[in-house]
Amino acid sequence: MKNIQYWGLCLFIAIGLASCENEEDDYLVDNYKDVGGYAKITDRSLSRFDTNEDLNIDFITAEGVTAESVEIIQDGEVIGTATVSGESASFNSSILGDFMFPDDDGVDEEEGEYDIRIRTTYSNGNFSEDPFTVSVSKVLSLGNAGDEYSNPTETTIDSLSSVELAYEINTFSAPIDDVTLMFKKNEDGTYTGSGADLSAEGGYIELSDTDYEDLDLMVNDTLYYQITVTSGSMTDVVESMVAITPKAFTTSNNVTLTDDPLLNQLNLSTGEISAEGNEEGEIRFLEPTGFEVINDAGISFVEVDDDFFGDADVLTARAAFEEGDPMTSVSNLENGDTFVYKTTREVEDEDENVETFNFYGVFRIGNVTSVDGEVVSYEIEYAEGY
């Protein structure tokens, strides 16, 4: 009867693990048939903080067979023993090593693996030597794997306050004492407190809930941030950055506006040149050398320096417009004259929702063509966005 039960258990285990691709499990099933039992470590994933935690082992044995003693082997040497209690045992992670892993150049890495063997002696006089890998990872990581969220690496100055920084904290059982966030402006800055209250369980940090404005960040600056987590005397740190980029225009065009009634109107949104009377026109050629807003288009212009165009973006255009005196018609244009403008447009998103936004643009006069001393056309290069 005992043999029937023994081989029945073997068959049960073999079926349960038959589809498993883990070589360790395949080895365990084969080994079980020979010795009447095997040991399986249940805790295989640790963090850098789990240097003094108890790891558990389960025993699978034939009827009447029990585990009597357990040794932990690493690189062919016994590094410690486990305390056996019935059908399980435990050993302390401190016997594994210093939780540092030299790479090929001898530089210590903070993540790695320990290959161990569990040598178990059974009451039937047999023993098994079962191989396992225990992995060690960093405590802190940026982003949120569960939400597939990656922290942004760049944004515009007007969107900076809405940036969310996600972080995850993972340990096997080591407690977390403190989590802090620090900021600095640009690479050569000095880290200072952020004023944020961070959870020891991870989560999201909105920059609007921090003191980031104290850094007085500008376009082309970079916000560096550093998250530090502590457990006793141990620390883990991650650092990353958010570059503050210009806010690019969304559309741009090169057109020619003329005094010809068939080609004297321009819709800045579409870049379409049309004839006099087109209700979609936003500006038209104004004799002798100018343009004017038409059809209640709601556009106004502010003249700026000729060299403004090259480095302009939505935000600099907005700032220049707000500092100037808006006008709806301009005359006596010359090659190089430059303007910023403001208008309101509706934008439909991918879900067909429509919102209204203020658009800002930059507008530069190109070649001015004259015939018999009278201007008949001029080129316009412009771009706009919101």
First CA to last CA: what distance?
Answer: 82 Å
- Quick check: average pLDDT? 91
So how many helices?
Answer: 3
Structural class based on helices, strands and sheet pairing: mainly beta
What is the CA-atom radius of gyration, in angstroms? 35 Å
Label the overall shape: elongated
Q: Tally the beta strands.
A: 28
- How much beta, percentage-wise? over 45%
Q: Uncertain regions: pLDDT < 50 for 5+ in a row?
A: 1-21
Described by strand count, sense and barrel closure, the largest sheet is: 8 strands, mixed
**Oligomer category:** single chain
Placed side by side, the strands forming the largest sheet appear as 1-3-6-5-4-9-10-2
**Helicity range:** 10-25%
Structure description:
The protein is mainly beta. The protein is built from three helices and 28 strands. An eight-stranded mixed sheet has the order 1-3-6-5-4-9-10-2. Helix 1 packs antiparallel against helix 2 (about 25-35). The longest helix is centred in the first third of the chain and has 16 residues, at about 1-15. The protein is elongated and about 115 Å long. The N and C termini lie far apart (about 80 Å). Residues about 1-20 have low confidence and may be disordered.
